[in-house]
Design a protein that fits this description.
The complex is a heterotrimer of chains A (about 325), B (about 300) and C (about 550). Chain A has about 325 residues and is mostly helical. Chain A has 13 helices and no strands. Chain A is globular. Chain B contains 13 helices and no strands. The longest helix of chain B has about 35 residues. Chain C has about 550 residues and is an alpha+beta fold. Helices cover about 35% and strands about 20% of the residues of chain C. The relative contact order of chain C is 0.14. At the A-B interface, α1, α6, α7, α9 and α11 of A face α1, α6, α7, α11 and α13 of B.
Chain lengths: ~325, ~300, ~550
Amino acid sequence: MLNYIIRRLVSLIPVLIGVSILAFSLMHLVPGDPARSILGEKATEAQLEALREELNLNDPYIVQYGRFMGQIAQGDLGNSITSKEAVIVEIGSRLPATLELTLFAMGIAVLVGVLAGVIAAVKQYSWFDNISMSGALFGVSMPIFWLGLMMIWLFAVELNWLPPSGRLSNDIELQTITNLYLLDSILTLNGEAFVNAFRHLLMPGIALATIPMAIIARMTRSSMLEVMKQDYIRTANAKGLASRLVVFQHALKNAALPVLTVIGLQFGFLLGGAVLTETIFSWPGVGRYVMDAILSRDYPVVQSTILIVAVIFVLVNLITDLLYTLFDPRIKLD
Amino acid sequence: METLAAEAKADQLDPALKQKKNSSLWLDSLSRVVKSKTSLMGLIIISLLIIVAIFAPQIATHSPTEQNIIERYQAPSGEHWLGTDELGRDIFSRLVFGARITIKIGVICVGISMVTGVLLGCVAGYFGRWVDQVIMRIIDIMMAFPSILLAIALVAVLGKSLTNAMIAVGIVGVPHFARIVRSTVLSVKETEYIEASRVIGAKNGRILFSHVLPNCLAPIIVQATLTVGTAILDAAGLSFLGLGAQPPTPEWGAMLSDGRSALQTAPWVVMFPGLAIFLVVLGFNLFGDGLRDALDPRLKQ
Amino acid sequence: MKNKALWMLFSLFALMLLVVAGCSGNDEASSEGDSDTEKAAEGNGDNTFVFGRGADSTQLDPSKVTDGESIYVTNQIYDTLVRYKQEGTEVKPALATEWKVSDDGLKWTFQLREGVKFHDGTDFTAEDVVFNFERWTESAEYVYYGYMFGATEDDMGGIIEKVEATGDYEVTFTLSEPNAPFLNTLAMPPFGIASPDAIKKHGEEYFKNPVGTGPFVFEEWIPDNKITLSKNENYFGEVAKVDEVVFRVIPDNGARFMELQAGSIDAMNGMNPQDLDTAEQDVNLQIIRRPSMNVSYMAMNTQKGPLQDKKVRQAINLAIDKKKLLTLFEGIGKPAKNPLPPSLWGYNDEIEDYGYDVEKAKQLLAEAGYADGMELTLYTMSNPRPYLPQPKFAAQAIQEMLKDVNINVEIVENEWDAHLSATENGEHDMAFLGWTGDNGDPDNFLYVLLDKDNAKKGSAGNIAFYKNDELHDILKKAQTELDQEKRVELYKEAQVIIHEDAPWFPIAHTTPPLAVSKDVKNYIPHPTGSEPFNHLELK
């Protein structure tokens, strides 16, 4: 097991190097000028040139890339060109926001998706099956940016039930520990902050959860159905085991595999989908941050953030693979 | 962009799909598609989209680009069925002409993903060894890159335009096709009749195109249909971020994006383009689902 | 064992379900209580002024920034030698109490205020002024210094030859040439005097640990979220009436407006024009319009293609219905006919705008030999600017109007920096741009934007690449002329020439609206774009 993990981790290195090269070269192909981006319309050509020199933007690409990777190897992600702040600090304050949103959305998606899928499979062709599966089809077809805007319009503008943007109302005091506001408010036993943060999370969370939820529901249902048709379930049924126990103990266990795959893949999707959701809900997360950085040619920010997101993504995949063995002893890791 | 890939990946777990199919099975499948109520509905939506696109000038009540700034942000009425937008253009007519762009997006994006992906997947699966290694590592790298960010970065490099957005979305969709095709090729490659044709001296290219590829058709077609939906969503997302279609193109995502600033006062500018996107994507997904069920002999009783 | 894990996972789900169900059950009940407390907190007058805005500051070192959002904050923290008066661009004493200029206009001597302390407790002296000015010549990053005083790579000091402490509380500037706008320039927020101790102490980190002498003291900065300042009890001027100022970032204009309606912020800038009506009808809100010191325009590249012909440029001026175009501004802009905003001295009101006349435009085009029309590009920025709230809409409107005179316009939209690079290089036929005045001097508009000195490819401020020697002579003369009356005449003459040559289609002077809660008293917006908050009160 340990061997396997080490081997997998080692094999990630070339992939991550590839990602870094891709990120680096894409960024340097983008037309535009970071110096101009910083100094604005009022700078003179002499000032621009001097700044480019200061930022080492005049070096050959290979030198710049080497410097970037050298820093990374030392654990230094560099500094943002526009804000001068260390990228690690900036990401540190934004990544928790995105993680909180993503985990929350994933929670909704898994909870509702698996539950709906299981019930739909057990009661195949019932009204519940029909409704939830049509709902799932609607879900995968949903432009989430539109769904988000429509939710804002309905729940924030028209009904005034939920806050339209942000993570926490500014009159709420919250001592931050992990920067995951829900968790922090539990840790500090701050009920007011918990409710407030939860209300802020609700709309973006649901918007982001929609597509994964639908996919998980569909996958759960179909793998459950397949397993339930198999002989041993029939045998179990015939032996007279209470049907609910049969479903949960045997069927779900076997159906868990493909569902797990989906969850792993969807996590990556969520990280990407956060760009749109964060834009719409003014969520101060990594998605918006990278997108703004791409558009203002903040090279170090883009390169480092993409690398970090890629690391998270491949690690999630690794964990998914490891979980396979937990659910199905027949799967060997090697 | 990973949305449906998940399901596609699950397909790979199913050995039945990899069986070769014969022509009677194809016919059989077709009739299944038409018989299934959901996929028929999908087919109807898609046909409607195509009809609207073809007869756009006849269906539209106004010019899609004609402005009337004085009458901006008008609510839906007898004159403007779906209201007017920020420049006083008729939203209904813009949606109608937008149907053409939507079809274009679907076809071109999926075309790029499919051709490139199939080619890469075939080559990787058939030749194996280092070729396979190199191609699949590149695919891994692309998959490890959050797809929407990859698309944004690609558009940033290529410049903002609908064409470039389509190219970006197309490229982002390549890995899924490549993976599906590769795994199918891997299993077909070892079958006896391929061995046989190799023994009688057929060339690689010939084996690939006349024996291996036809066996991959079913999963490719299913994947393509399902990808049309995601491609439309992704391209609309890029346009929504201002990176896709440029004015005055009546692209639905861009229309929606331009309406955002008036969400409080004129929600219809946002509402209808989004609804249109949703319906069309739903249509392709319904149809794709039906197609998959039909081409999947598992369900055949 | 495997089973156990499965069951644990399952009970975890069940627990989460319970939690979520429990929360959502409570949610509605508690939400009402929640908003009640929100309102109550506000009514209690917890004395914090919350200002909502679209973007975060980039740095809190004013000498290095050009974005309004950074300046807004630093304007609270720092003082300049002289400050603008509350309602205009005339200057009043601040860190300097009095000043005099030598007859040749080259030596400026300032008497400094005694007993002023920086927020870190150190004393403010003449040496500190010298330290700051010398620091600004060290790098090209100090962008405003270089730009206002004409620094070059070889001469980073620009027109300021030296700055000396001629006493503990006396500073003398020696200039290399007379500069009429010098005093006004010193009042610009980028020239806020920072504590040398703090700069040395924080080094690279100074940009997020600002220390000045201003009415507010920096407390905390949570990037992309909020910046908190507290009042400076020992301020030498009017001590602030609010205890705290919070700058909150809410990127979406609509969302920010909703927060204002909900009462969670007290004031905001950057409204969607569409929300203005709603705001005006809201009894809890007041709309305050910032006096205009800006101009938005469509520059026509006078060195390229058909636009080299004056008649074509005039025809385009005639073919665009400015009144209709301005409806897109929803009442936040007045049509422009001159490059100068009317609030500035030297504005020539006798000039008559071209007006909207398609027939005349066609005739002019025919005379110029373009009756069959032409293809032109129109470059536009993707993001709103204070002087042009929705560039994309304006571009499309112009595109449509020019169709009537057979001009086909292709819109090229770029991010802000790419737009600047492209237009400075002269890639465009036509391009949107605008200008917000820095120091309230006409030179800061006319020379910077329309003189041939600034029409160099690659670094052009004059993106019409308009070159007129007669105009150049007038503008140069006005720069060194110290007699105000004569300067007024010169600038009026300059505007006549510009109008005739039509290098621009002037669009509008905007009065960017601020939406402010009725509870806020004495909010007086300044034409330069930001104002210190020490005068305002919360009810």
